[in-house]
């Protein structure tokens, strides 16, 4: 696997999702990652530390430029806990949990988050505004209601299937209500 190509493709896909999701500075972008799938293996069986490092570092560089927080979801062995910057956890009053990820419990993405974030902590849950799922890891539990599926501009990253979610406020009020324009671009 060519890691330079992986970095370039990650940046392209994530930049597109950021733009189309209308995520704002100070909000949370969720990453679900199966490095096993990216490397052409089976989810949960062939975690690849270098793949995780490339994807998370590339995403952090892009999100940090825009003031958006990254939350990296762990696998089911950590009950889908997430790594996020302590600053974000404190601002958003998130419940900290005490666990350190490993390659096969939390995964390569969480290990990379601990490598590249300034002050990473694990939290039980977040309410993200958008996110990308690399390898069908199911990030929906960490994206706020109402979720809006976005089709990434690429269908795969390496060998991993890609899906993405944005969110919008609930439409309430009924037939007499009026609404603001929906900023989510779904093309």
Automatic annotation (TrEMBL):
Pfam families: DUF436. HAMAP family: UPF0340. Belongs to the UPF0340 family. This is UPF0340 protein NCTC12278_00245. It comes from Streptococcus ferus.
